[in-house]
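Lest this sound abstract, we think one record worth quoting, the chain in one-letter code, the fold tokenised, each line plainly labelled:

>
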Amino acid sequence: QVRKQVVGFMRFLKDRDATVLFTVQNTDSLPTDDLEFITDGTIRLDATRSGTTVRVPKFRGSATQSGDHA
């Protein structure tokens, strides 16, 4: 139910050409695939033993360069 409301709200904002940044925490019990599907971009922050990484797996309408960057 909550997911449907969030998706509806995101569509409402998109229809009005709003620029919005949502933050969610991805878990095994509550994946974010459905929310990522309707977004124009996804930024992933991951903490590992070697440090924190930032990935941009989806950025619609823009060219990106894959790989690690310093």
